[in-house]
Amino acid sequence: MVQDCPAGDTDRSGHAVGHTKIMMSRSSLLKNLSRPLIQPFAEFFRLEAASGILLLISSVSALALANSNVGIARYFPQVWDSVLAVSVGSMVLTKSLSHWINDGLMALFFLIVGLEIKREVLEGELASVRQAMLPLVAALGGMVIPAGLFWLINRHSPTAGGWGIPMATDIAFALAIVTLLGERVPLALKVFLTALAIVDDLGAVLVIAFFYTLAIDIHYLLGASGVWLVLLLLNRLGVRILSIYLLLGFVLWYLTLKSGIHATLAGVLLAMVIPFRTRLTDPDAVQRQLGSMQQRIQTNTGMPRDLSEELEALSEQIGSPSQQLEHRLHGPVAFLVIPLFAFCNTSLLIDFSTFGQLTNPLAMGIMAGLLLGKPVGILLLSYIAVWFGWASLPVGVSWRQLVGVAVLAGIGFTMSIFVTLLAFKEQPIRQNEAKIAILVASLLAGLLGYVLLRGDKSGLTATPQSSN
Predict the structure, then answer these.
(1) What ranges make up the beta strands (E) of 159-300?
(2) What CA–CA distances, in Å, run from 67 to 73, 97, 356, 437?
């Protein structure tokens, strides 16, 4: 793409012409191709924000239908109990429609979660200790304090096992609210919120794996372990055919489901072994293509749409299987799987007596965890980390803005409802009570976080001094 000049060639000032041309060419290339490089990041925020709005519409629609006595709407909540059988060869699964959504489609959500965690750890905001420290510490506080508050309120109650419910943040809802605020929220704050929510999700995955698995069938577990080891071996051998990983991933999901471990964890396990690193089979060809595109941009001889499509095709060609899968799944998961999950699990019958349940230990623990534990935990550990010099606030972010984001992190919704289904399996009354508390707490957290971030940014801008 770039030809070096002979070492002896110099310009009038004595500088190497070849080196100068290379630097100018690189600078020009970076400038011309900067949009495609940052496009995935911008697209992530756009998708998550739009998904959050669709989540809200889905939830409100489900509540309206479940509480309507008009026509067939009165039978709406019972739809999710309909039984659906699926067979592939000798494998036969018979589940209710709600189970297919919660155990089947949600595996795709957890696959995306796993891919996002992997990306952030290898190349993103969690790639270095210094970079990752603030969101890691903040997320830790935002998990431990809410769980502790819930347990304190429910410790003498049969509902004490629901301590994992207020631990995670719903990134879609949170980013949807942040997007409504526009330029009032700096990009660095959005990145912090995203990294915090991803660490939250990782914590929730670990909690589900270790604390909400009731019974294990050792034979199916060994089978699932064997399939995962085969996938890992394929990764080590350099196999990059995505369809092979997806086919074996389906087998992994089935064996995980039958083992007693929640099947959605198969999505995270699959994400761990899908190759992430980019591998160029013909770097020279890629360089020639980029050089040609750069020349057309500089001479204004290429149509913008053609260049954009060519860049997308090139990105698909040189992208890793992990990147390709995340790109393909993000839209369907954000706009179909998660809204359908919300539509299914917010089909709640609500009357005046329902709100009386908000004074029960279960509901009080959830609301205290999300509305109080989340912001206190995030802010307390963030302040300690900055005070001791372990981390620093993102550039251009004030403490008041961090308070607003910490409150927004109290929007639990998707993951909180998911943990509820596991913590109170076969206990629909407690499930409904917990869901109402999650909806109320998430609504209040969203409104309060919006008000705080929209308010005056002049306060709380001072950073605590490091003791180092």
Answers:
(1) none
(2) 8, 20, 17, 17
User: Residue 349: which residues within 8 A CB-CB, separation 6 or more?
Assistant: 66, 67, 77, 432
Closest C-alpha among 71, 106, 52, 80 to residue 346: 80
pTM beyond 0.90: no
The DSSP bridge partners found for residue 16 are 10
Q: Tens digits of per-residue pLDDT, 170-208?
A: 887 888 888 777 777 887 888 888 888 888 888 888 888
Burial of 145 (0-12, 13-18, 19+ CB in 10 A): buried
Terminal Cα-to-Cα distance of the chain (whole angstroms): 48
Top pLDDT among 348 and 409 is at: 409
DSSP string, 33-83: HHHHHHHHHHHHHHHHHHHHHHHHHHHHHHHHHHT--SGGGGGGGGGGG-E
Cβ–Cβ under 8 Å, residues 387 and 467: yes
Report the SS3 class of residue 185.
Answer: coil
What's the rounded Cα separation, in Å, for the pair 103 and 101? 6
Distance CA 322, CA 278 (A): 9
User: ∠ CA(272), CA(274), CA(276), 5° rounding?
Assistant: 95
Report the percentage of the chain scoring pLDDT > 90.
Answer: 26
Q: Where are the beta strands (DSSP E) in 244-353?
A: none
The tens digit of pLDDT for each residue in 302-338 reads 555 555 656 655 555 566 888 888 888 888 888 888 8
